[in-house]
Amino acid sequence: MVYGDKTTRVVVIGTGFVGSSYAFSLINQNIADELVLIDLNKEKAEGDAMDLNHGLPFGSPMKIWAGDYADCKTADIVVITAGANQQPGETRLDLIEKNAKIFKIIVGSVMDSGFSGIFIVATNPVDILSYATWKYSGLPMERVIGSGTILDTARFRFLLSQYFDIDVRNIHGYILGEHGDTELPVWSQTRIGSELIDRYIERYKPEAKKADLDEIFVNVRDAAYHIIERKGATHYAIAMGLKRLTRAILRNEHSILTVSTYLKGEYDLEDLYIGVPAIVSMSGVEKVIEIDLNEEERQKLHHSAQVLKDAMRPVFHNK
Ligand SMILES: NC(=O)C1=CN([C@@H]2O[C@H](COP(=O)(O)OP(=O)(O)OC[C@H]3O[C@@H](n4cnc5c(N)ncnc54)[C@H](O)[C@@H]3O)[C@@H](O)[C@H]2O)C=CC1
Ligand SMILES: CC(=O)C(=O)O
Q: I need a labelling partner for 311 at 20 to 30 A (CA). Which of 47, 243, 253, 305 fits?
């Protein structure tokens, strides 16, 4: 562990579908020494702690308990997955009012404990609530990270891997922007192995159609709607994305991940959290990576940023 002999502690706030799936994912990875579960529904957190503890004989040693906000004081990472999720037909932005109110209380309680670690935010609308967490906590921007488009990028890579019949680990591409309806694919920089996708198609899959690629992106963008219609929530893949982010921090991996982070001029955007590639290490977001976008992609990213700014104005500036 990069923290040397120090015991590493992760606190999860909100042990619903996402929080409990993340906790399960974490105990299977031997990443942290301690895991604290907090939920408004204390019995749910207690039940989860019992259930997870009973699995430890099959895994690695870890201390897991249902705790309270005082336990955040020495935490390295606090992951917030608390709050309302989308009902069928609802957009992520529809959740802003109720979840922003919940966040004011949660983030205030975490900071009252004396917490000085890193926040990871997953609750939707994640870009706006990451901004809220940064504002409410007063922590440096690099220590407040939203899961951003980490999940959308994973969905994009998976669907492309199916289409091209190539190992998903050899598909390299990013979804940027809002984790939501205005996100965009960066086709101009998408690669299969080391080949740009257009060149790969020319050489190895000339029968591939633009309409198929467009449909892949639509399925990425609308994946949450499709899953929520079928089972009411999405949680396994985001749990694995949050675990990946946790590992990048605790193991100081310097990984490039599409997280929601604060922009101060990068991509000609400022004063918002939005999904872009960034280097993540034990200090949090070390650096935003500004990949070359073509004009259409740049315009779509700016449109997505504008939609986020318009949505957060009533919550953060006019009240
Ligand atoms: N960023 C991403 O890629 C994804 C984000 N999400 C978001 O994650 C959030 C959670 O989703 P689910 O786990 O499905 O919801 P859920 O309803 O299963 O769980 C939410 C939990 O938060 C708890 N909670 C509510 N208010 C609280 C408070 N003030 N303090 C502590 N706990 C509180 C509830 O008791 C509940 O256990 C939603 O906003 C959802 O949209 C879901 C999937 C992917
Ligand atoms: C719910 C959500 O944000 C997702 O699955 O993308």
A: 243
Domain at 149-317, CATH from 3.90.110.10, 3.30.460.10, 1.10.357.10, 1.20.1090.10:
3.90.110.10
Q: So what's the ipTM on this one?
A: 0.99
Ligand 2 centroid–CA 94 distance in Å is 13
| Residue 87 buriedness (CB in 10 A; 0-12 / 13-18 / 19+) | exposed
| Phi, psi angle pair for 262, to nearest 5° | -75, 130
Q: Is the CB of 122 under 6 A from ligand 2?
A: no
Confidence of residue 4 (pLDDT cuts 50, 70, 90): low
Query: Residue 110 carries which side chain, given as an amino acid letter?
Result: V
10 Å Cβ neighbour count for 64? Answer: 21
Residues 101-125: tens digit of each pLDDT: 999 999 999 999 999 999 999 999 9
Are 220 and 175 in contact by the 8 Å Cβ rule? The answer is: yes
| CA 33 distance to own-chain centroid | 22
Numbered residues of the known binding site for NAD(+): 14-19, 39, 44, 69, 83-84, 99, 122-124, 147
Q: For residue range 249-303, what is the model confidence (pLDDT) as tens digits? A: 999 999 999 999 999 999 999 999 999 999 999 999 999 999 999 999 999 999 9
Structural element, H or E, at residue 201: helix 197-204
Query: Which residue blocks in 222-270 are alpha helix, DSSP H?
Result: 223-231, 236-250
CATH no., domain 9-146: 3.40.50.720
| Preceding omega of 125 cis (within 30 degrees of 0) | yes
For 314, residues 6+ apart whose C-beta sits below 8 A from its C-beta are none
With beta carbons less than 8 A apart as the criterion, state whether 110 and 78 touch.
yes
Å from CA of 6 to ligand 2 middle: 34
